[in-house]
Amino acid sequence: MPQTAPLPQSALPAPPVALLNGAALFLDFDGTLVPLADTPDDVAVDENLLATLTQLRTRLNGRLAIVSGRSVATLRALGFGDFLLSGTHGLEFAAPGEAVHAPSRLPAIDAVEAAFQTFANGKPGLLVERKSISVGLHFRGAPIWTDAAGELAATLAQDHGLALQHGKMLYELRPGGADKGSAVAKLMQTQPMAGGIPVFVGDDVTDEEGFAVAVELGGAGILVGTPRPTKASFFLEQVAAVRHYLAEGAAG
Prior knowledge:
This protein has helices at residues 47-59, 72-80, 107-120, 146-160, 180-187, 208-216, 239-251; strands at 7-8, 23-27, 64-67, 84-87, 92-94, 127-130, 135-138, 163-167, 170-174, 197-202, 220-224, 229-230, 234-236. The protein has 252 residues and is α/β, with parallel strands linked by helices. The strands form three sheets. It has a seven-stranded mixed beta sheet with strand order 5-4-3-2-10-11-13, sandwiched between helices. The radius of gyration is 18 Å and the shape is globular. The protein starts with 6 loop residues before the first strand and ends with a helix.
């Protein structure tokens, strides 16, 4: 199959509801199902969203998964305990009611967390986010530190042999060997996702691997929000549009 150049978001159509017919649906969380917040702890999941996702999952015969940079533990605490989950950019997996399958937390992550904390001390607006097996440095509240935070993250990644994950106003260090694309590929080989047509919905650059694998497997990506070149085939302009689209799909 010939390779095609990524398209800018403005050139992409809105996804038809029929795209969800027979889909294996993969949903990013932050910036896709809920608006981005100043801090990770400011995000909440409402009952209407959970009801829509539950109804849509039933229509898709269980083929719905949340694929997020958040840890599985955090996703469950937010209300997704009854859903198929992949957390920490494809490093963690959990089925409803089952234990989390994930690598152990590396001592190097603790060392990076300490270095991030030292860097953030005395710099209002910087936030260190501890995750189960990774750690992130948020600079949304202090963009003046963008370059310095990036240089620190790159140095620490090299020194400790970790993967550096760029996100929206975030640098995250974690073990390598996985991303949202590998999460899609793995879940598509297992029930209940196997046999569906993969559709990945996400907003961040970290979702591009998910789009790419969905397309490779005969499905599609849906880009949310920020205009950019993308491997997605469709776009929705904001979280409200995503939720309206999913509600239409749930209604059949």
